[in-house]
Amino acid sequence: MSKKQSAEMATGEVQSESPIIRANLNRETVTAPNFASLYANDTQVQVTPWDIRLIFGEITEPPTEDRPTVVVKLTGEVRMSPQHAMKLAMILLGQLKQYEQAFGQIPMVDKVK
Fold first, then answer.
1. Domain interval for residue 99
2. What is the C-alpha separation between 74 and 71, in angstroms, rounded?
3. β-strands 42-47, 71-80: how paired?
4. Which of 3, 7, 33, 107 reaches 20 to 30 Å from 95, CA-CA?
């Protein structure tokens, strides 16, 4: 009998394992019939207590003197749990750090002229 089993029997308490499923498992990926590869140079983020929504688009017409607004063609959206979004943010930050170490600092544009 393990020490854990002995402790559970002595105290009458059952210690459960963490319900968190780790992602470093062997994976087999299958492409869904409706899979799409999209380009986005515009992303909107919406947050609720239950999910995070990323809405992707492509800027098709920049602002002009006659029309001061940009035209964005929406191409797709991804909805995920806040936990998934947090993990995604951590992974993206790590990947961007590796990118900058390999290729140099990514230039940022403060505003579109």
1. 37-103
2. 10
3. unpaired
4. 33
Domain total in the chain: 1
Nearest to 58 by CA among 77, 75, 37: 75
Which amino acid, residue 75? T
* Inside any domain, residue 57: yes
Q: Does this model's pTM top 0.90?
A: no
Tokens of 64: 């002009």
* Calpha distance 55→45 (Å, rounded): 6
Average pLDDT over residues 92-112: 90
pLDDT, tens digit, 9 for 90 and up, residues 54-85? 999 999 998 999 999 999 999 999 999 999 99
